[in-house]
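Slack export, channel: ligand-projects

TW: morning all. Re-posting the request from yesterday since it got buried. We need the structure predicted with the small molecule present, not the apo form. The ligand is flavin mononucleotide; the SMILES is in the block with the sequence. No rush, but it would help planning for next week.
GE: picking it up
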Amino acid sequence: MPRVLVIIGSVRPKRIGPTVARWVAEIGRITMPATFAVLDLRDWPLPMDDEPGVPAKEGYVQPHTKAWSNEVAAADAFVFVTPQYNWGYPAALKNAIDHLYFEWRGKAAVIITYGGHGGGKCAAQLREVLGGLKMKIADTMPALTLPVGQVEGNSGEIDPETAFRGYKATIGEAITQLHALLEPIQD
Ligand SMILES: Cc1cc2nc3c(=O)[nH]c(=O)nc-3n(C[C@H](O)[C@H](O)[C@H](O)COP(=O)(O)O)c2cc1C
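GE: finished. pasting the full token output, ligand included:
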């Protein structure tokens, strides 16, 4: 069975990222035969600028980077579940991506974003970056608009089943595309 990592893009204390990612992982499990593990970047503190080498050219010196490398290398595909911050995606996610190179390269990915205004701008930026890593990205990029009052309330709580009910089919479609991207090309 392929191993899919569902990566939570946000790390701030009062966040909805883990709840949204767990809900997406459940949709993943009923959509394709794979293990879906939710990965929290808060469990992976990766200090910025502490690797002297270029990931695409050299190895790593820091133990945390070597562990991060093993974690990402063991995955066959990724679902990025990330909020939109100031039209982009969180710096912690870019930092986690930039610590590695070959571990991402050529693998399949789905981009799912959310925000007060959906997450289309953040999805476009992340797609560009993953393209630079030669990743195979599902065409469908669900961008979930948060319910009115969610951003202002900033409770850190959300019921995705209610808030994002209308997006379930689109998320399933994106996961189905991920499944297809994992299949070897038939001649
Ligand atoms: C620093 C910051 C910037 C934000 N910028 C945007 C934005 O540009 N567009 C948007 O739709 N929502 C924006 N929001 C609202 C977030 O999408 C919303 O707060 C969401 O819950 C953040 O995800 P998180 O709770 O997992 O951190 C921003 C929130 C934060 C904290």
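GE: first-pass observations. DSSP finds seven helices and six strands in the chain. The mean pLDDT is 96.
TW: perfect, thank you
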